[in-house]
Amino acid sequence: DTAVSQTPKYLVTQMGNDKSIKCEQNLGHDTMYWYKQDSKKFLKIMFSYNNKELIINETVPNRFSPKSPDKAHLNLHINSLELGDSAVYFCASSQALIRAGSGYGYTFGSGTRLTVV
Amino acid sequence: TQLLEQSPQFLSIQEGENLTVYCNSSSVFSSLQWYRQEPGEGPVLLVTVVTGGEVKKLKRLTFQFGDARKDSSLHITAAQPGDTGLYLCAGSNAGKSTFGDGTTLTVKP
Known about the structure:
The complex is a heterodimer of chains A (about 120) and B (about 110).
Chain A: E1 4-7, E2 10-13, E3 19-25, E4 31-37, E5 43-50, E6 53-57, E7 64-70, E8 73-78, E9 87-94, E10 107-108, E11 112-116
Parallel strand pairs in A: 2-11
Antiparallel strand pairs in A: 1-3, 3-8, 4-5, 4-9, 5-6, 7-8, 9-10, 9-11
Chain B: E1 5-7, E2 10-14, E3 19-24, E4 31-37, E5 44-49, E6 55-58, E7 61-65, E8 71-76, E9 85-93, E10 96-99, E11 103-108
Parallel strand pairs in B: 2-11
Antiparallel strand pairs in B: 1-3, 3-8, 4-5, 4-9, 6-7, 7-8, 9-10, 9-11
């Protein structure tokens, strides 16, 4: 039973298209995240939601819009895709916000490899 | 911007050897995590350390958090091919984590 599942696993699309990636977690965690991993394997946070409320919104183009219908789901919609959006996108969850002394870590999904052509 | 630098970036060793991976920053973190990522998968949490000077052991893996909570190390004893992967450290403050640039470990049989 997958803890954090995201779909699709692979997404190949043309420039200018709009696409969505879905994420669901069955761990009962309060906090969910979207991370982007570039070709050099560097992971950078994009968004985080705590109990459906947006907590972190890093410097991400407005073309990226997260939506959290409930605390178990966090979807990512991307408008007007560009070549530079090609990357692996990871959804993750944690029991709560990773604060001082909490000892929490992330549970990651298996990633969505987005290729824009 | 809080930066985490890992060293070495690449490490290729023979089965049975010992190794240490370092994670360094000029920033203080309230906690630090280590993850291992295999190709085509997401990072998997190995350990979280929260107290300066803390040492945690996970079978053949030993993790240490620096006294000043700015750095950490991961030591693997008698490495096995199954230890092969990308090792990532992540420092956390105020609900946000910064990931290191990763260490790719290859253990040859």
